[in-house]
Amino acid sequence: MNDKARAALAAYRESTKGQPRPKRPSLKRAIWAMCKDCIFDPMGGGSWRQQVERCTSPECPLYEVRPRSASTDTEKVTTRCDSAQEISDSAHGIEVKP
Questions:
Q1: Are 80 and 48 members of one domain?
Q2: Helix, strand, or coil here: 96?
Q3: Which residues form the domain of 76?
Q4: Which region holds residue 63: left if phi is over 0, alpha if psi is between -120 and 50, else beta?
Q5: Looking at the structure, do residues 77 and 61 belong to the same domain, yes or no?
Q6: 3-state secondary structure of 1
Q7: DSSP string of 19-76?
Q8: What predicted TM-score, i.e. pTM, was given to this entire model?
């Protein structure tokens, strides 16, 4: 760093001394804001979170990380586990009766 840059940095630090640093938004809050901005319709019924949970755009890069309630996540995990068990059973020749 040259002398001019050091002087500028020192001047900046002195001018901002005692002031709180601006907060950066978290990644989670940035994703929430993007999803809310994309899908929320005040006239659509339900809260913005409920509307985001019902999102039907799997091609969206944020689809897998969009805000979801714990019950929604649990249902998906259960479904995945059930599917894995069915695959395992069929691979081992176990007949699964509906």
A1: no
A2: coil
A3: 69-98
A4: alpha
A5: no
A6: coil
A7: SPPPPPPPHHHHHHHHHHHHH--TTSSS-HHHHHHT---TTSTTGGGS---HHHHHHH
A8: 0.48
Q: How do residues 43-81 score in pLDDT, each as one tens digit?
A: 988 899 999 999 989 999 999 998 888 766 555 544 445
Length of the chain: 98
33 — alpha (psi -120 to 50), left (phi > 0) or beta?
A: alpha
Annotate 5-35 with b (16+ C-beta within 10 A) or e (fewer): eeeeeeeeeeeeeeeeeeeeeeeeeebbeeb
Residue type for 49, please?
R
The SS3 of residue 2 is coil
Contact status, residue 66 vs residue 35, Cβ threshold 8 Å: yes
Q: Is the same domain home to 31 and 59?
A: yes
Q: Is 17 a domain residue?
A: no
In the structure encoding, which two tokens stand for residue 63, read together? 């689809």
